[in-house]
Design goal:
Length: 94
């Protein structure tokens, strides 16, 4: 099982979108020095904003790409307000 995850950093007031099979382990990596020289190192501490369970890794990659392509803070925030958006994404990329 794979997940699309969205992290939020109040330090830089930004969201980060990724995909993984273990959300908690990935969150720990983002909040430690595992990604020391990466963009996410600037935003520590990150908190989990949203996690979307996907059926396959391919589906997770497609949904992650879709969300990133939107390049919209409002779209990300609407994912938590309107559950039907997530349902439609999962259906579209099934």
């Amino acid at each position: 099982m794979h997940f699309v995850y969205i992290l939020y950093s109040s330090k830089i007031d930004r969201y980060y979108v990724g995909q993984t099979y273990d959300v908690q382990a990935r969150l720990v990596k983002h909040n430690t020095n595992y990604y020391e020289n990466k963009w996410t190192a600037k935003g520590k501490p990150w908190v989990l904003y949203l996690s979307i369970e996907c059926d396959t890794k391919a589906q997770a990659l497609q949904i992650e790409g879709h969300i990133k392509k939107m390049k919209s803070r409002k779209y990300i925030e609407n994912l938590t307000r309107y559950e039907e958006i997530i349902a439609r994404l999962k259906e579209k990329y099934s």
